[in-house]
Design goal:
Number of domains: 2
InterPro entries: Retrotrans_gag_dom (IPR005162)
Protein name: Retrotransposon gag domain-containing protein
Distance between the termini: 132 Å
Order of helices and strands: HHHHHHHHHH
């Protein structure tokens, strides 16, 4: 908090708009704080009120919660993008001294911790038993899965449209067949009626004696 107060005091002396403080603020950060800032939503990083509130909320908790406790109690927040959560968890891990970036047992445990807390059962199911070497390997796999989901989602409206068109064509074909069948039935009925009329009508002939 003392560092933030000093930063704000100095920036007020520059008479620049508060939202322009955000870039200077980011350039002032180091190590875990820099990684923490990078995972923030774009709007938060560009709006000083949101950025300063997020900083206070995150770093004031240090006084009541250790870095390791924050890391092991982390969970993906509602509507938080899975990649943003991974970046946030990575920042927690760095602050907690978890050595996850170069492979090894801690890296595997970090990957498992992410999958257990990311609240994405589809992602967890596809990656839980995958041979993930390190966090960078995990990031590539996640991006591949998300791109595949996006392509599938983009195709679905087209598939539904084609199915609807096919259904329309089938319905129209069915109606045409019904109309044709009715027309044939009518023709047959008319033919039978005509034949019946011919059979019951009196026959007349020329040259008969009566």
């Amino acid at each position: 908090m003392q560092w933030l107060r000093k930063f704000m005091y100095e920036m007020k002396g520059t008479h620049t708009p508060t939202n322009e403080w955000c870039m200077t603020f980011e350039l002032s950060l180091q190590n875990g704080a820099l990684h923490w800032n990078r995972q923030l939503p774009r709007k938060t990083k560009r709006t000083w009120k949101l950025l300063s509130d997020a900083f206070v909320k995150y770093y004031c908790s240090k006084f009541t919660q250790s870095a390791k406790a924050r890391y092991y109690s982390a969970k993906r927040e509602d509507k938080e993008h899975v990649c943003d959560y991974l970046n946030r968890l990575n920042g927690y891990a760095r602050n907690a001294g978890v050595q996850f970036e170069n492979g090894g047992r801690e890296a595997k445990d970090h990957v498992d911790h992410f999958l257990d807390t990311c609240d994405d059962r589809g992602l967890e199911g596809r990656l839980y038993h995958a041979p993930v070497k390190d966090i960078h390997d995990l990031e590539e796999m996640i991006n591949d899965i998300l791109r595949s989901r996006e392509r599938k989602t983009a195709r679905e409206p087209s598939v539904r449209r084609h199915r609807s068109q096919d259904d329309d064509r089938r319905r129209e074909t069915g109606r045409t067949r019904v109309r044709g069948a009715v027309s044939v039935a009518n023709d047959v009925t008319e033919t039978m009626v005509d034949a019946g009329n011919d059979a019951t009508s009196p026959r007349t002939g020329r040259g008969l004696p009566w």
